[in-house]
Amino acid sequence: MSLYVTEAQVADLLTPTDARVAVHASLERLARGVVDNPARVRAALPGGVFGVMPCVDRELGYAGLKTYAWLPGGTPFLVVLFSIDRAELVAVVEADTLGQRRTAGASAVAARLLAREGPATLGVFGCGRQAASHVAALREALPSLERVVVSGRNEDAVASFCKLYGCEVAADSREAGECDVVVTATTATDPVLRGEWLRSGALVLAIGANDPAARELDDVVLERTALVCTDSREQAREEAGDLIDPARRGGLDWANVRELQDLVAGGAAARESEDDIVLFKSNGLAAWDLAAAARVVELLS
Description:
Elements lengths: L2 E3 L1 H7 L2 H17 L2 E2 L4 E5 L2 E10 L4 E9 L6 E7 L4 E7 L1 H19 L6 E5 L3 H13 L5 E5 L3 H11 L2 E2 L3 H5 L3 E4 L18 E4 L12 H6 E6 L2 H7 L1 H8 L9 E2 H6 L11 E5 L4 H15 L1
Parallel strand pairs: 1-7, 8-9, 8-11, 9-10, 11-12, 12-15, 13-14, 13-15
Antiparallel strand pairs: 2-4, 3-4, 4-5, 5-6, 6-7
């Protein structure tokens, strides 16, 4: 009998560690070529967009997809898992929380690989659910963190977020941008992070701006970055405005952009110097959704 898994069950079962481990294993399988992960397909809805993200993970034993309807009234997300071996529907998983945690899990994987030794400070732009998931995931992945400072447009929302998650309100945007690790998890269409703020050796984890016309990072971030990494060059070339615009103007060569799966597999160099500024631009892969959903199903068994 097929499972139907609710948001509450996902929230109870899928810890930051579970999500990070599932995403890491997914990236290893991607590097070995046993996962087919086509780019996201989008179709217009009145006032929104319908997204479908297909994937086949032959080693994990699942084919499936993540799908969502981005609408003014909200955004329902689902992951559907089919067993390859048994040719049956295994589970339908409500996937809003799952999506937040797998995205944060991927950032945690990137941070373990790309952050300089012993990062002590985390700066977060944004105070929504993705920001909350990243605070939890990065505290778990980087135990050396001592301070988390948060910057956002709404002072009351930032203050409430900081009280709830044990963070500090940034004195200004610069303070968040001067941390060892900087997360941009916003819905901004214009840059919130300036490259002039970045300290030597910083790691930037850019999560938002999954639209060719949107930017979270200014040009100076890209100019100062020694290594640019993303989850999928193919997908980034279609939807990562933070990379598309600089590449169009000659400020970024796509051939030099690394994929996270190659770093996980050890087939490409991570940072070469503790002083390098490094960027991971995340767009989100269906392979991560399948892996996280499979872990939830496993925990329910």
